[in-house]
Amino acid sequence: MLILPPLWDACPRCQNVARQVIRGNLSIARLYSAKTVDEHDPDTDYSSVESFGDMAGELKRRKRKADSKRRQYGNTFVDHILVTVRGGKGGSGAAALQATLKGSGPSAPCGGNGGSGGSVYLTTSPSLSSLTTLKKRVVGGQGSSGSGAHKHGKRGDDVLITVPVGTIVREIRREGEEERTIREEIDLGLDEDEKRMRKWKRWIISHPSAGGEVSLEEYQGAETLLKKEGRWKIQTPSFEQQPAIELDISEALREPILLAKGGLGGLGNPFFDSPRIASRGFMPPIQTFEFELKLLADVGLVGLPNVGKSTLLRGLTGKKAEIANYQFTTLNPQIGVVRVYEDGRWSGELEGGSEIQESLVEREIEDLSRTLGEEFPNTKIQKGTSVRNGNVERIRFTLSDNPGLLPQASENVGLGHSFLRSIERSPVLVYVLDLSKPSPAEDLLVLKNELESYQEGLSDRANIVVLNKADQVEERVGKERIKEIEDVVGETSDIITLSGKYNLGIRRLVDLLVEKVEMAREVAKREKEEKEREELMKSQSGNKGYSFGMRRLEV
Ligand SMILES: Nc1nc2c(ncn2[C@@H]2O[C@H](COP(=O)(O)OP(=O)(O)OP(=O)(O)O)[C@@H](O)[C@H]2O)c(=O)[nH]1
Ligand SMILES: [Mg+2]
């Protein structure tokens, strides 16, 4: 906690300090926070005491944590993964007999049916931007077995796989238990009778207390009944019979999509002619899916660590990205939406004079203001709705904040280049440089070099250069640095000098981004029309191309 809570009740000066913090005067709070209750003297002006107390310690701790996180997960931004998925197995039917009084005749079958297995569905979440959370194996809940007195088994639980928007899902393999068994039987060289008996044993269960073997006639009768119900042939449809699932999720899903259906539950003995027989639940096929993430942001921010990319994301979109004064605060790409209104204002815009705080400081201030029952104005970012104060939205685009790039990222230094795969897909790229550093022009060359060694021509796609932290630079020095950068980029890029933290110069950036995004969309539209024309011509000339029996669903 930044300010000592017990003090503001007792001391008007403390309350005054706390209110100053809420108005944004943090330096006072930092000095003040070192004092304990015992040390407190209401007559001392703590704003002149030189101590950074808790805040510095906490920052150090967080930096250590970020470093270890980077070492642990740094090179594992997951954007490609194979997942095996299976619906839950159906529960078995029961072969139970009703209890009867002695000598009152044969007991009636009363076994309940098994519950069907749970299915596996796919859904999207706006808070995800990596496939890291995906498990390699996902199985629906198993249905419970039926029991006596006509009690049917419970249905297995459905399972949701949650992915970020921009994920491509392809089913690449599908195999059921039946196919595996058939292969095994061929290997064992079994004859038809043996195969049939094995199949009966696999699908039909006899009541444990029924005594003796179930006769061939009983098995045959049960088989006929199951065939009638369409429950005998359970071979998995091949990709020719039922196309593989292929999804390109470019928008948030309104409803979950079914990937793997749960198996049917077995039938209880009232269904069969023989009271000693029930059937087993189905085991659904195992499906292998390939998940690939291509983050779909119109604009990608590229920069060295700690230059203020996440601060910019926050200022442009209002998205709460982690901001801190050390490298690799951001470990995975983050995507936010920029909504620009008719009057040129935008969704993440701050109120005049507000400042974007580091996350840690912001959380402490929020705690403090909650305790004091006051609202902290700096954290109030405009909500992203399509109509704001009667002002209509003009354009909406997405922006990705990426982890910091280091020299030799393409040789896996820092976080490596795994996340460049997402950057690669953004039609507009923005270089973010720290103008308060001695040589931002050299930093720019480093960035260009890294993009180029990842993919030829990629460095030229970035045609906006943002010079951030302008508030920290003396005018003369700043001008010299800007001149050096102009010499590097020549006519190829627009240069914008701004301060992300203090919300200065952002409007020019927004205007430029709108212009570039509109241009990029126009180009993409033309390319799409061109492609459609080509495909139409191809299909008219009878050449339908080679199909792998896959179905493409544009969601
Ligand atoms: N003075 C000043 N500080 C800024 C400005 N923009 C960002 N900062 C500070 O710079 C530090 C790093 O900001 P981040 O937004 O976390 O930087 P980043 O580029 O996302 O960093 P990584 O995620 O580690 O690559 C924080 O302490 C910010 O408060 C600015 O315009 N002026
Ligand atoms: Mg960041």
From TrEMBL:
Keywords: GTP-binding, Nucleotide-binding. Gene3D superfamilies: GTP1/OBG domain (2.70.210.12), P-loop containing nucleotide triphosphate hydrolases (3.40.50.300). InterPro entries: G_OBG (IPR031167), GTP-bd (IPR006073), GTP1_OBG_dom (IPR006169), GTP1_OBG_dom_sf (IPR036726), OBG_GTPase (IPR045086), P-loop_NTPase (IPR027417). This is GTPase. Residues 526-537 have a biased composition (Basic and acidic residues). Residues 526-555 are annotated as: Disordered. PANTHER family: DEVELOPMENTALLY REGULATED GTP-BINDING PROTEIN-RELATED, MITOCHONDRIAL RIBOSOME-ASSOCIATED GTPASE 2. One of its GO terms (molecular function) is GTP binding. Pfam families: GTP1_OBG, MMR_HSR1. One of its GO terms (cellular component) is mitochondrion. PROSITE patterns: G_OBG, OBG. Residues 297-518 form the OBG-type G domain. Residues 75-296 form the Obg domain. It comes from the Eukaryota. One of its GO terms (biological process) is ribosome biogenesis.
